[in-house]
Design brief:
This protein has 256 residues and is of the alpha+beta class. Helix content is 39%, strand content 31%. It contains four helices and twelve strands. The strands form three sheets. Strands 4, 5, 8, 9, 11 and 12 form a six-stranded antiparallel beta sheet that branches. Strands 1, 2, 3 and 6 form a four-stranded antiparallel beta sheet that branches. A hairpin with a 6-residue loop joins strand 8 and strand 9. The longest helix is centred in the N-terminal third of the chain and has 56 residues.
Amino acid sequence: EKSPQNTNSNGNHANSYLDMLSSENLSTTILAVVGIVGIVVAICTLKSIQEQAGLMEKQLGEMQESGKQAARQLSLTERPWISVSLKLIGPLTANDTEVRLPLLVEATNVGKSPALGIMIELVPYVLNPERPSIAIEQRRIADQAKAVSAANPVFGDMLFPGSPPLLRAINIPITVNEIDKYSIVGDESYSFVVILGVGYRSTIDETTKHCTCVVYDANRIDLQYPGSRFGFRKGETLSPNSVQITPNSFMAPIAE
């Protein structure tokens, strides 16, 4: 037999349920339930939106990376490529202050798009064991050619694929002071290389800097000794037949 206290408690609970379902409280109860359901739905919707946003962000990142890869591939396959050559066009002349060597630079666009802002750096480099290596100087000239092209966006030549080569005659000087400084003490001869750097840009991406940089050996030749190469004598003027300019067989061209 239940105690009166338990009976009263059960009655109170029943009355509470009845109160909630009464016409006066029914609307409030429904609004509360709807509110709770709305909150649950909102939480679920927010979670779904966050998941969708995360998925979209991932897809966007993948699309951007694909776009970058496509742009890089396009830059490699459709970019300009400058090929160079160097020819002697006169005698090597020497006086009390300098040596002069007249050279003709020939640049050809063998790529698939125009080359912009072409800038040429042609530098003689007197050889000495104490100086930085030829490779270091070649790298310096390549970077310098690219920097000069980038720093002068409205200057420089333009070269189209398949068009006639760009020709530039340059009479490069070597000072006697430089020759004396780097030639071996007591030696009346000197040796040097010529480093040709060509900096340019692309119409595909004008912010990208390109260059071609080639090292050429300069030698004195004597027809009495075919196949032999010699250094230059200080103060000596030579005819074109006595000077040879050839690509250095040990230094690979820089093509970027």
